[in-house]
Amino acid sequence: MNRLVVRHLMYRRDETAFALPTVLIASVIMLSVLLVSVTAVSSIRTALNEQYYNQIAMEAGEAGTAMATACLRQNNYDPIWLSNPDPTKRVLKPNTLCNGNLNTGASSYVIDDASVKTSFTVSDATVDVSGFVRVRAEGLLQLMRTSNSSSIWKIYQQTAYGQSNYVDNPQIASGAGWKSGGHNGYMLASNGVLYAWGSNSSRQVGDPSLGTSVGSPTKVDPPAGTTKIKRVYDSGQGASILCVLAGDNQIYCRGSGGLGGLTWQRFGLAAGLTAVDMDMSGYGSDAACVIASDGQVYCAGMNDFGMLGNGQTVNNFIPMTAPTRFLLPAGVTAKKVFIKDWLTCVITATDDAYCAGVNNLGQTGRGNSSINVGNGNSNPARVAMPAGTAVKDIKLTYHGSYVGIYYLGSDGAVYMSGHNGEGTANDGNTTYTTYYATPRRTTTPGYQYASIFSIGQDGNDNSSLCMIREDPNPGMTWCIGNNDYGQLGDGTCTDRGNWVVFGLPAGEAAIRTMNRESGYQMNSFMVITESGRVFAAGDNRAGKTSASSSSALQPCNGSPVEIVMPFRAGSATERVRAVALANSDEYTAFILGDNGIVYSLGLNGNGQLGKGNVDAGVTFSGDTLTSAGSPAKVPTSIIMPRISVSF
Predict the structure, then answer these.
(1) How far apart are CA 483 and CA 357, in angstroms?
(2) Quick one: average pLDDT of 28-44?
(3) What is the rounded distance in angstroms from the CA atom of residue 27 to the CA atom of residue 21?
């Protein structure tokens, strides 16, 4: 019995154990699973490493696009490495300069250590048909052997692309003229390419084969030997002259009126001098003054009433090839120059003002009045501002025989000298009976202003002035003077001898410093508000101040109206914001949107609306609308390139 129990128990113990083959099979299966798991982990790790190294290679390429961005911005968006005389150096690398030449001492790598080295190569930079700049950078990663850090084990390559976005505002300008011609629009893109449209009667746009009127924006060829244009200048009302500051830092002009010709002519600065800035005048007093690299001002053109400040006694014409110096005192240098009609003023490096030209009514602000100051032995004289008050800005205006000079002082106040005209002295007088040979403060103490704007009027010796307040109530806008067209925006067409508020809607404040080209306006006043909206008051005979119609031919349009900007592409609620404007033409206006598109309103007889055609728009007999036309009821888009770079 005991044996049976034992044998039974032994049998049962054998029954519950694993046989050796079973154990071996299970072990093999488990080992296989473990091996697969290890292999999977290894594959994942390899994939992660590959992703990691490719990402570093991509970052190296992005370093290349960043370098390209910096080089383009430094060189006015000109990819100068592609112009290197040595074809093998037409690339950007970590150890090159922007021109492709070797940057001595710079590393060849972005990352340089024993295990990893990265670099990049930028060889392409193209501008597409829309004006976008595109660059391509090849990023390279070299994985070094652990046993030999000078031996490459593996290479990873990635390509990074840079697409430019619209960031920098190009310059827009309008060149005014007679009703029969001279009207132009200009836009200088931020890569140095100038586009023009409108009248081509004096080759303002380009080759005569384009015709006398050009309805679409057309690239303007730069002066011979230069590849880009840095700034464009037009002579304002009566414009038939175009001047540019070219990439070689020289001024070139072309057109009629004696300052230019049918081809570009260089403004004749002496050898070794370059141009810094300039200003010019038109309307029969064609002249130009250039600030040179020596800090002096050189002028050419008509010298009516000694306006060129060279001490000469006759109203002679000074050729552009041989300009004369505006006679500042010894040791005094200039930082701004202003010339309109029969007056020229300079703001010096010490923020004093010197003016020359007609002074029969004390316009030059030197404390006396006598005709032709600036002629003979009388050189430009310092404007007699109050003690301790420097000059921040100056505004002149056309039709200057009765017009004063307006100054923005360092105290934030606005001053004027010369004839009060129809009220700009803020003395309550609008009857041409007072003048001031010493600058008169026209604003209330304690109020500071950021910007001043001169508003000329065609065919009359009068002007208006508007200003935008800095403090208190920033952006609040005030106007004074002639109001024949309602340009003061107070809801009337009554001349004002005291400041009145330009009637912006509640909650809207003007941008305190608008673009340079907005400083001189004609027959109307336009402002851009902080919200990017545009409001205008004044002459609407050509539909340039109304977003709805030009049928209000008063010519008084005294209540500011909004020029409604279009909706953004793809949006039914968000409108394009205005960022700059040009309104120096009495019949057209241009507005630059933050989308890089220029919009236009007004007359199109010379194609100056830039909408691709030339049409009557509205037609004139004298100053009266005689036949119906359809001016742009909303701003017309001018499709312009958006050429600025932000990767």
Answers:
(1) 27
(2) 63
(3) 10
Residue 41: its pLDDT value, please? 58
Place of tokens 């049409």: 615
CA torsion through residues 499, 504, 508, 509, sign: negative
Q: How far apart are the first and last CA of the chain?
A: 96
The residues near 498 (Cβ < 8 Å, ≥ 6 apart) are 423, 426, 428, 480
Cβ-contact 440, 420 below 8 angstroms: no
**Contact predicate 412/446, CB 8 Å:** no
- CA gap 607, 200 in Å, rounded: 10
The torsion defined by the Cα of 80, 86, 90 and 94, in degrees rounded to 10, comes to: -100
Q: How confident is the model at residue 182 (pLDDT cuts 50, 70, 90)?
A: low
Q: Specify the CATH class of 270-419 in words.
A: mainly beta
Residue 494 predicted with pLDDT over 50? yes
Question: From the CB of residue 619, how many other CB atoms can be counted at a distance below 10 Å?
Answer: 15
What is the spatial distance between Cα 50 and Cα 89, in angstroms, rounded to a whole number? 32
pTM: 0.71
Check if the beta carbon of residue 215 is closer than 8 Å to that of residue 607: yes
Structure tokens at 294: 């020596």
Round to whole Å and give the CA distance between 233 and 242.
6
d(CA 353, CA 307): 15
Q: Above 90 in pLDDT, residue 392? A: yes
Measured CA to CA, the distance from residue 522 to residue 313 in angstroms comes to: 32
Look at residue 195 and give its three-state secondary structure.
Answer: strand
Rg of the chain over all Cα atoms, to the nearest angstrom: 35
Task: Summarize the confidence of residues 371-391 as an average pLDDT.
Answer: 77
For the chain, the structural domain boundaries read 50-163, 167-266+597-647, 270-419, 443-516+525-584
pLDDT at 639 over 60: no
Q: How many CB atoms lie within 10 A of CB 324?
A: 17
CB 549 within 8 A of CB 564: no
Beta-carbon contacts of 647 under 8 Å, excluding residues fewer than 6 positions away, are 65, 66, 68, 69, 135, 162, 163, 164
**Which residue do the tokens 């009248």 mark?**
199
Q: How many other β-carbons are positioned within 10 Å of the β-carbon of residue 256?
A: 16
- Token pair for residue 583? 């309104």
CB atoms within 10 A of CB 150: 7
Please give the structure tokens belonging to residue 81. 């490495």
The whole-number pLDDT of residue 10 equals: 43
- Which pLDDT band holds residue 329 (cuts at 50, 70, 90)? very high
200 touches 208 (CB < 8 A): yes
Q: Give the Cα separation of 84 and 100 in Å (integer).
A: 7
